[in-house]
Amino acid sequence: MTTIGLTGGVGSGKSTVARMFAERGALVIDADAVAREVVEPGTPTLAALVERFGTAILAADGSLDRPALAALAFADPAERAALGAITHPAIGARTAELMATARPDQIIVHDVPLLVENGLAPAYDLVVVVWAP
């Protein structure tokens, strides 16, 4: 099984490249989609966030109010670390679950913003950086 880390700037065409890989049979895992999935209403991760940051991070419908969470979590490095300590394990576990669904001969493409900046490149067989105006 080959793993490809896919990254690039905002608006560079990562989604287009990911779609091209999927059309050719690759299993594409979108890190942003996984991050949203693990904090959906009713998930243990959202419950842990509410326990840590309070109900002010919830929208009226019980979903995560991302701007409200960002205002609390990114105001202080310790709070940002707490956010990561809650969300990163859930994101990693869900990503592993999705990767486990790949066929043995299937290429896995992991669409990860900030892949290089976060030092994740060594985790992949190949890194593709989309660079387009």
Compact overview of the structure:
The protein has 133 residues and is of the alpha/beta class. Helices cover 44% and strands 14% of the residues.
If helices are DSSP runs of H or I spanning 4 or more residues, what is the number of helices?
Answer: 5
The percent range for strand residues is 5-15%
Distance between the termini: 32 Å
Query: Order of strands in the sheet with the most strands?
Result: 2-3-1-4
- Record field, number of beta strands: 4
DSSP helix fraction: 40-55%
- Tell me the radius of gyration: 16 Å
Structural class: alpha/beta
Taken in chain order, the helices and strands follow as: EHEHHHHEE
Weakly predicted, low-confidence segments: none
Major sheet summary line:
4 strands, parallel
Bulk shape:
globular
The whole-number mean of residue pLDDT values reads 95
SSE inventory with pairings:
Blueprint: E1 3-8, H1 14-23, E2 27-30, H2 31-37, H3 44-53, H4 66-73, H5 77-99, E3 108-111, E4 126-130
Parallel strand pairs: 1-3, 1-4, 2-3
Helix pairs in contact: 3-5
Characterization of the model:
- The protein is of the alpha/beta class and 133 residues long.
- Helices cover 44% and strands 14% of the residues.
- The protein contains five helices and four strands; from the N terminus they run βαβααααββ.
- It has helices at residues 14-23, 31-37, 44-53, 66-73, 77-99, and strands at 3-8, 27-30, 108-111, 126-130.
- Strands 2-3-1-4 form a four-stranded parallel sheet, with helices on both faces.
